[in-house]
Amino acid sequence: MAEKTFSRRNLDFTLFEVLQVSELIQYDYFKAHDTETFGFTLDIASDIARQIMAPAFTDSDRKQPDLENGQVNVHSSIHAFINAFSEAGLMAAPFSEEWGGMQLPKVIAAAAEFIMGSAHNSMVMYSDLTKGAANLIYTFGNAEQKAVFLPKMLSGEWMGTMCLTEVQAGSSLSDVATSASPQADGTYLIKGQKIFISAGDQM
Ligand SMILES: Cc1cc2nc3c(=O)[nH]c(=O)nc-3n(C[C@H](O)[C@H](O)[C@H](O)COP(=O)(O)OP(=O)(O)OC[C@H]3O[C@@H](n4cnc5c(N)ncnc54)[C@H](O)[C@@H]3O)c2cc1C
User: Fold this and answer.
1) Which of 66, 100, 157, 185 could potentially form a cystine with 152 if both were Cys, beta carbons 3.0 to 4.6 Å apart?
2) Which residues line ligand 1 (CB under 6 A)?
């Protein structure tokens, strides 16, 4: 199924001939890469899409997550995907080597996600939300926050979400009312209500 959902020939043409992504390796940050490692990354994404994601598409749609003893259970294929995605290094791929990443250009990481999203877009939500949350910590977090969260998130052990929407604030994010009050022990007391949080809880 994954082969039918995208054209590798068209993707390669867009990346290597139109965008000329191979020129990126002239930059120091990407010096460990070449055209072959870019292609290899896309091959791995295709394998995961074909072997894990596409075969689970119908069953995971029919067997929706359920709530059991206050815990959300998701389809087992989500775990298989996260494990394969993380073990292949794709969760950490665009991040710096300092944090176990590959310093892969984001355009190649995005192309890999496009391949996987074409096979099962809902699954890619889990990895995308985690990478987005990790990137927030990577960009704005202090040293302690980075040390606590990044290794676990970039290895796929911990997941991330995006908690924006509230009952009274969907598109209008200037209306969000949730507050975070700093506590004496360095933690924050969060008061408010969030809804529609994709990948907000999963076992
Ligand atoms: C499957 C799913 C997953 C989601 N996952 C997440 C998540 O992970 N994290 C998260 O924070 N949120 C998530 N959301 C929430 C999503 O981001 C909100 O539903 C979205 O922001 C729209 O808000 P709303 O539903 O309150 O609709 P409203 O903002 O009330 O919009 C209702 C209608 O009014 C229109 N409208 C709104 N504002 C304007 C405007 N200024 N001008 C013209 N028209 C307008 C909209 O187009 C829409 O048709 C998810 C939603 C869904 C359905």
Assistant:
1) 157
2) 161-165, 170-172, 196-198
